[in-house]
Amino acid sequence: MLGDVAPESLGICDAHDHLFLTSPQLPGQEMDSVNAAGQELAAFGEAGGESLIQWTPYGMGRHAGKLPSLSRTTGVHVVAATGLHQAAHYTAELLDHLRAEGLADLFVRELTEGIADTGVRAGLTKVAGGFHGLDAHARWTMEAASEAHHATGAPIAVHLELGTGALDVLDLLCGKLDVPPGKVILGHLNRSPDLAIHHRAAEAGAYLAFDGPSRAHHATDWRMPEAVQTLTEAGFADQLLLGGDTTTSGARATNGGPGLPYLLRGVRPRLELAAGKDVVERMLTVNPGRAFAVEWA
Q: What's the structural domain count of the chain?
């Protein structure tokens, strides 16, 4: 938000979270309060957090123009995203407009010139798959994201619906669209604790994000340590990331939920027992620095 930052300067990083997010899929749970976002980011900083990657994409209440002041006030680096989520989060009229305008052009513009009327340049493109597959909307957004990557060098972060479809995503992005696997970040793998799929995705060279501990997913907390330990033992510790993915106002720490600080106060010590402090430190510092690094094309 405050200019380019060297990868090694990110410090302890929440690799997938949201300060702002609104969607018709989450009625009454909008995260659109600047004051609440500031309190949450400050709480993360007090817990030791130094950077946060906001995956909120286009059209979902990013409030990109508010992020620089929040970053400056709290001392926490914030990275914004361009991109597009699943079709269910948007009106048909908006999607028709984006098809006419050119989705890849929008992504490239927000990555290079900045997000309209904010002065903020996005640092990644966020797209989404479907449940165990890719529909036409997902393919459209991923094709646009790949064009943006080839034009800018920016990484592509992917919401995997309930943690599924990782190999389909890699087949499309890396196989057909020639995106280097090291520029793809797969999110929510903990929601589908299939260790064989995790291994194949890591073997392909992608980054694997384990995120969402701030919400009650059926397999998130108690299976994640096993997954991290297994991947570490297989030699993939350098490809693992951690995030909180706070997406509702009720999940904020300021509203009585675990919120952003839980990643460091709850998840980190549990993972350290399984994989060791050195591995978890790498997941929170060195790995996100590499995963989100951009050599601007």
A: 1
Q: Which domain holds residue 105?
A: 7-291
Q: Write the pLDDT tens digit of every residue in 113-152.
A: 999 989 899 999 999 999 999 999 999 999 999 999 999 9
Q: What is the CATH number of the domain that holds 171?
A: 3.20.20.140
Nearest partner of 206 among 177, 176, 233, 171, judged by Cα: 171
For residue 198, tell me if it sits in a domain.
Answer: yes
C-alpha closest to that of 44 among 268, 281, 209, 263: 263
Whether the full predicted model's pTM is greater than 0.90, yes or no, is yes
Closest CA to 36 of 53, 19, 50, 52: 19
Are the C-beta atoms of 85 and 44 separated by less than 8 Å? no
Residue 43 — pLDDT band, cuts 50, 70, 90? very high
Instruction: Report helix, strand or coil for 293.
Output: coil
